[in-house]
Amino acid sequence: MLKTIPLTTMLTIILVVLAVIAFNTPSQARKGAAKPKAAAAAKSAAPEALVARGHEVFLTNCAPCHGADAQGDDGPSLRHKGLPEAAISGAVTHGFQGEMPAFGGKLNAPDQQAVVSYVQSLQK
Ligand code: HEC
């Protein structure tokens, strides 16, 4: 079978294969290719930290009623309910009279934002 392929064709195939390898290797290792990934990671780092802080705030202030993972306890589950941000921040700021305390005056603004981000992250 190999004997039927002319030598020039074989050489062409080998050259093409070598060219593909030579072309691909440096482009994968190129530093520039890694840059957009690094930028994307940096972008998502901020919300992740906010959500992590929000979970801490949640454990201290909300978990006694809503459960450690917001799965519901005395208070309702807050997971996968499609709650819009305004509803979450409204609940945190104003509470529900006789049911849930208002946290507007209890938590500082960054912690309120963090806990809202945490609850938002549970809606997906
Ligand atoms: C004392 C118990 C208690 C605590 C503490 C508490 N909640 Fe609640 N929460 C409730 C109850 C009960 C409801 C339901 C109120 C209603 O629907 O009338 C509720 C409702 C909510 C809702 C609206 C849910 C919906 O389906 O519309 C959100 C959002 C919420 N809480 C978030 C929080 C967050 C965030 C914290 C902590 C900062 C917190 N809650 C702390 C008891 C509590």
UniProtKB/TrEMBL annotation:
It comes from the Bacteria. One of its GO terms (molecular function) is iron ion binding. InterPro entries: Cyt_c-like_dom, Cyt_c-like_dom_sf, Cyt_C_IC, Cytochrome_c_Oxidase_Subunit. This is Uncharacterized protein.
